[in-house]
Amino acid sequence: MDQARTTISKIFNGEPQSYTRFSLTQNMEGGDSQVEMKLSPEADEEVGTNGVGEHLNHQREYYKKKPARSPRDICFLIAATLLIFIIGYLIGYLVHRKQDKTMLECDQTQAAAVSAIDDDDLTLTGDSAPKQLDWSDVRTMLADRLTVSQIDASLSEFARNDHQAGSPGDEVLANKVLKRFKDNNMDTWVDEHSVQLQLPPASGSNTVEFRGQSVGSLQGYLAYSGNGTAQGPVVYAHYGQKEDFDDLKDLTTNLTGRIILVRAGKISFAEKVANAASMDASGVLIYPDPADYALGDATHLFGHVHLGTGDPYTTGFPSFQHTQFPPTRSSGLPSILAQTITASMAKTIMRSMGGRNAPRVWARGELSGVQYKLGDDNDIVSMGVNNVLVETNIHNVFGVIKGVQDEDRYVVIGAQRDAWGPGFAKSTVGTTLLVELARSISNMVREGRFMPRRSVVFASWSAGEYGSVGATEWLEGYLTSLNMKAYTYISLDGVVTGSGSFQASGSPLLSDLLTETLKEVKSVGDAGKTIYSQATAASGKTSLLEPLQLTDPVYPFITFSGIPSVSFQLNGKQTYPYLNTLLDTRDKLNAATSGNLAQLIRAAGQVAGHMALRLVHDHLLKMGVETYSQVVNKYVIDIMDKVNDLKRSSMLPRTVTTDWLTSARGSFGRSARELRRVIRESNLEDVEQCRKINDRIMRVEANLLSPYVSPTTQPFRHILLGTGSHTLTALVEQLDAFKSLGTGDVEALKTKLALTTWTIQTCANALAGDVWELDNDV
User: Fold this and answer.
1) 3 state DSSP class of 682
2) All domains of the chain, ordered by start, with CATH?
3) C-alpha distance from residue 303 to each of 11, 157, 217, 244, 286 (Å)
4) 726-747 pLDDT, tens per residue?
5) Spatial distance between the Cα atoms of 238 and 711, rounded to a whole number of angstroms
6) Is the dihedral of CA 363, 365, 371, 374 positive or negative?
7) Taking residues 182-207, what's their average pLDDT?
8) Quick one: which of 130, 225, 298, 455 has the most CB atoms within 10 Å?
9) Is the pLDDT of residue 450 over 60?
10) How big is the CA angle at 314 (ends 733 and 334), to the nearest 5 degrees?
11) E strand or H helix that includes residue 679
């Protein structure tokens, strides 16, 4: 080899009669270097001392003539050349083989439509849109992974007796949820909020006395009650609904300064207290009547009386620790006192009450030995409330499975984690189902068989018992991005409280998807039936969405953030009575579900899972825009009839018209029908086309939020499902007030009509698409 090297050196450093010149020219376009070979027949010019010519641009170079090489040198030259050739051939072969292998693997990957998966965060990669599985295959995969045994194990893991919001027990559960998300290789994060929660008295308890005697020791309480003392004659007001107070007014019962005694049920605690406050009452006592709740006489109730959601001391603002909170206070906070009492305590009061008999319907209670009366001036009740406002840190925990195509669009599945006591049906079931759905879907993705087009976010909320505080603070903190990117929220709160029946509430946009889903999931304990057939047979209704209530966990998502949302519940024919008590335990829920608890939770998981997976599986979002057309039509026709009736009665001038409102309704309907035509005639395999259509669908809910009111004063801005003077419900009530009073503020009515009209019209314009698609004839 040394001899060969010497010979090669002589070749390159020598001065032959004819030479080989290697010119290494860099390819500035990024290619490989090129080798140029030139032969010269003679040498006319000497070179420099280094043996390399100084002319670089393909000029001839000349060297002095030397004697001819010996045969031995020639043999070594041939051997060296052959060696170089063999080495070069082997290198070229290996490179070519590697390229062929890479191309083969790429072709196989495309044929199988499987993108690479990053095991650290379940982020799917791949430039082209993946070929999706059939929907039936996706359903089967979820059913195989969402098992009863896993659900049972998680129920035991997440059951606690002490997980009130912000407590050490709540933090333990938060860490467990976070660990489960991480174990599933999901991207995770935690939001901490500093919120004001009202707790029971730090020492002693709240008090209630009837005719100077204590009715007993109070354990339950109502958060966000007014504090202080109140005294006055007690008045029985049935359930404390508006119509109940209207009936009392008709009976000429004076309610100013009175203590109102009402039954739990029908409406929320907060609404009962707000209705009493509107009648100038000084306090409210709420008890569970045995006719409504099979609880026993000594069961205490817990709840809150904030007529709203979120931290009532940072309305419209997120309660992050770094936020400079303005000195605001929710208008939904009551100024009067509120307290729960047991059925036994209510019996003590009502047995001795005088006054006239209550209306017959009101008297259908089951307090033993009680004749239901309205009360008189001698029935004096004194109450004292000394709840404590405490700044508390709460944590919301999140995990995400990212989509392969529209990663920045996501469905959110959430459940509250906290409870007053055991809260088994209220929170443990939902938290269990949350982590089990996260495990099942992440397994489907990690195995490479399911590739969601869009992302799925799993959220564990805290302070749900105080009025969806954790969820609302998250919405307030990220409002501007959420109503552009979060296209659906599915709540798992209280999804199982019994068997044999079903109820749901939420956005009309999701009504069709819910119906399709319920037709796919088998009922538990009723062979051959689906949940849909079982539910419609029991209710006699084809549409299963009930009116949205303020206490619904999806209420702030729809009415504050404009995110289409749905909550649902598998329940029994009898109401599960243990919510908001310390008796909400696993044993109680097992009894209410006839021992089928885990099977019912699995069925509820299939309902939530099918809806979420359908929304991330299909090119096109399954949302029915035309269902909102029906809602708008119903309201507008009602308003039009009432206005025309008032004009005929000369209670409204002829200048008040509903023509423009009717026109806006027509625009909304036409836009919805046009979108349906576009969908019908579009290539639904065209990713970009579907994304444009999906963006139009996603904006419907958000565009029904009134832009003419502030979220700090009217947070629930949805004109169809929200609360406040901007809603169509308020407009109908104002017209009813005109009729009952014979007069009203005409200019305020005209303004409300105009703002309502333009909110509907702008929603129709956005639904129609790009501005050049609009045609508003003048």
Assistant:
1) coil
2) 2-97 (no CATH), 123-191+400-617 (3.40.630.10), 201-386 (3.50.30.30), 626-773 (1.20.930.40)
3) 97, 26, 17, 22, 11
4) 999 999 999 999 998 888 899 9
5) 33
6) negative
7) 95
8) 225
9) yes
10) 50
11) helix 659-681
